[in-house]
């Protein structure tokens, strides 16, 4: 496998905040950044060395990115796999397409997870309205009906409480393609593990994070997760099994449910840096973004030790005006604004991370931060 040395160019597909933070980390260790994104003023475009403004399905643009880059990666998974195969034919794309294709489709993802002996919530496939009656008979309600392709942050999914609601939701969502009906897990915690595997097979894992969602969007991440040592070890073991079994290169975020008895179910996979890993920028010796760059470039992976407890909170569009443009930053409070030009309701505009001696103290500081900002 190649080793991509400092001074080389890393091509990033996707110009959002994940690409931006990936670029920041890459530049800190000596790389240049080329970007492909439809928006020439996206967060990553603002810091990239070269920007190709084009749609993600533009094969010529993808080929141009591959030709000016020493290695290519992506910051989000809704990229056409066929187009990425063309990138691999014309450049160095060590992550490949297989894991991406698997995680793009919920049914394929669940099948791959279960093949590796990792538990998921009970589910059924709905390909047409004719499948609704059988699903309603065999699944316990409440359940969650999800589109197989393209859903994120709660989009393309509906909680259904009976057969009538299931049929109504299926009629609406089937226009977007196949659906999966999942049993709603009665969980006590939502957690995630970010695992990184390099081109040489080296694997590291970040500490287990506890996640709180509002309206299906990540609200806060608390680290270390408030779970037992045994449950944390089991979660990391499952994440490792998935990274090895799927032959991952780069970053894989594994979202899980924890039941009251400690039983774990994998909910979703994301083959890229993840929102729940933003705390690593300040709280770990190596951030998830630097680790991803190291993995795809063939460098030794960094130390993932948690240096201090942390809480991260997303700043959405409806709260961005509560944050001053140039805040007086406390030693323990780190504000990140992504530079997005258009403010939208529930759009991720930034995040704030608080470090402290324990997670309760971090939560107190974070709550005080918002009270203070509300006064401006």
**Count of DSSP-assigned helices:** 11
Cα-based radius of gyration, to the nearest Å: 21 Å
Helical fraction: 25-40%
The helix-and-strand class reads alpha+beta
CATH topology of the largest domain: D-amino Acid Aminotransferase, Chain A, domain 1
- State the CATH architecture of the largest domain: 2-Layer Sandwich
Query: Given the C-alpha coordinates, what overall shape results?
Result: globular
Q: Work out the count of structural domains.
A: 3
EC number: 6.3.4.18
Protein name: N5-carboxyaminoimidazole ribonucleotide synthase
Function: Catalyzes the ATP-dependent conversion of 5-aminoimidazole ribonucleotide (AIR) and HCO(3)(-) to N5-carboxyaminoimidazole ribonucleotide (N5-CAIR).
Pfam families: ATP-grasp, PurK_C, RS_preATP-grasp-like
Characterise this structure.
This protein is of the alpha+beta class and 376 residues long. 30% of the residues lie in helices and 26% in strands. Strands 9, 10, 11, 12, 13, 14, 15, 16 and 17 form a nine-stranded antiparallel beta sheet that branches. A hairpin with a 5-residue loop joins strand 13 (250-258) and strand 14. Helix 1 crosses helix 10 and helix 6 (132-138) crosses helix 7 (163-173). The mean pLDDT is 93.
């Amino acid at each position: 496998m190649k080793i991509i040395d400092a001074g080389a160019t890393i091509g990033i597909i996707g110009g959002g905040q994940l690409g931006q933070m990936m670029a920041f980390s890459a530049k800190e260790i000596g790389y240049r950044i080329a970007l492909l994104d439809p928006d020439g003023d996206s967060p990553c475009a603002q810091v990239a060395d070269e920007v190709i403004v084009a749609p993600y399905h533009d094969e010529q643009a993808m080929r141009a990115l591959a030709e000016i880059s020493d290695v290519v990666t992506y910051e989000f998974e809704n990229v056409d796999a066929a187009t990425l195969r063309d990138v691999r034919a014309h450049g160095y794309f060590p992550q490949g397409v297989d894991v991406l294709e698997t995680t793009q489709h919920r049914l394929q993802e669940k099948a791959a997870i279960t093949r590796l002996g990792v538990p998921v919530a009970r589910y059924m496939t709905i390909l047409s309205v004719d499948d609704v009656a059988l699903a309603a008979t065999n699944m316990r309600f409440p359940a969650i009906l999800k589109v197989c392709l393209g859903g994120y942050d709660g989009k393309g999914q509906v909680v259904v409480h009976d057969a009538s609601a299931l049929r109504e939701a299926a009629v609406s969502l089937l226009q977007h393609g196949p659906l999966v009906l999942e049993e709603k897990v009665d969980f006590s915690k939502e957690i995630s593990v970010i695992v990184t595997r390099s081109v040489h097979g080296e694997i590291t894992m970040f500490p287990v994070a506890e996640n709180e969602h509002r309206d299906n969007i990540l609200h806060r991440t608390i680290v270390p997760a408030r779970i037992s040592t045994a449950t944390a070890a089991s979660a990391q073991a499952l994440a490792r099994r998935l990274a090895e079994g799927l032959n991952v290169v780069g970053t894989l975020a594994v979202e899980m449910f924890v039941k009251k008895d400690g039983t774990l179910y994998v909910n979703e996979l994301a083959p890229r840096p993840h929102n729940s890993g933003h705390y690593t920028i300040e709280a770990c010796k190596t951030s998830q973004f630097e680790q991803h760059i190291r993995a795809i470039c063939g460098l030794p992976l960094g130390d993932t030790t948690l240096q201090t407890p942390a809480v991260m909170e997303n700043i959405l569009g409806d709260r961005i005006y509560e944050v001053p443009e140039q805040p007086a930053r406390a030693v323990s409070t780190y504000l990140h604004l992504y530079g997005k030009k258009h403010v939208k309701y529930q759009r991720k505009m930034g995040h704030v991370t608080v470090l402290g001696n324990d997670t309760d103290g971090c939560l107190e500081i974070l709550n005080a931060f918002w009270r203070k900002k509300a006064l401006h």
